[in-house]
Amino acid sequence: YFLPRVVGISQALEWTYSGRVFGAEEALKGGLVRSLHKPEDLLPAARELAREIVDNTAQVSVALTRQMLWRMLGADHPMEAHKIDSRAIYARGASADAKEGVMSFLEKRPATYPCTVSKDMPSFFPWWEERKYE
Predict the structure, then answer these.
(1) CATH code for the part of the protein at 56-126
(2) How far is residue 111 from each of residues 31, 86, 92, 108, measured CA to CA in Å?
(3) Is the separation of the CB atoms in 58 and 50 below 8 Å?
(4) Cβ distance 2 to 31 under 8 Å?
(5) How far apart are the C-alpha atoms of 104 and 15, rounded to whole Å?
(6) What is the mean pLDDT of each run of 10 residues along the chain (134 residues)?
(7) Exposed/middle/buried for 26, CB within 10 Å: 0-12, 13-18, 19+?
(8) b/e string for 97-127 if b means 16 or more Cβ within 10 A?
(9) In the chain, where the domains are located
(10) Contact between 95 and 102 (Cβ < 8 Å)
(11) Interhelix angle for 78-93 vs 96-106, to 10°?
């Protein structure tokens, strides 16, 4: 399910049809991983990426973006994604995070986004219906 969404259908088909075991370099070239690291460098690199996300983004925007990207992969028409995207842009543009982003830019300082995922997701969230598993 996830493989073609991560690496594309052509690469996923090649890997699954061939059944071959491939190394890290091929995984990188094929888009399965974003970078390669020596074992001792892996955790620092992961923390650096996490720190970049935390320091430069609003957590509600990241959570909303993640849901939109994954859930809209299966949309039957681009308009479905557009409808959710438009609602998200409107909601996030009217948020305290947006005001803080603009002010921090104008004041040339790092942003301190006030909204939290636990309290401040947009009113339309979640927009999907949970599936019942049998």
Answers:
(1) 1.10.12.10
(2) 32, 24, 15, 9
(3) no
(4) no
(5) 46
(6) 92 96 97 97 97 96 95 90 96 97 97 97 93 88
(7) middle
(8) bbebbeeeeeeeeebebebeeeebbbeebee
(9) 56-126
(10) no
(11) 70
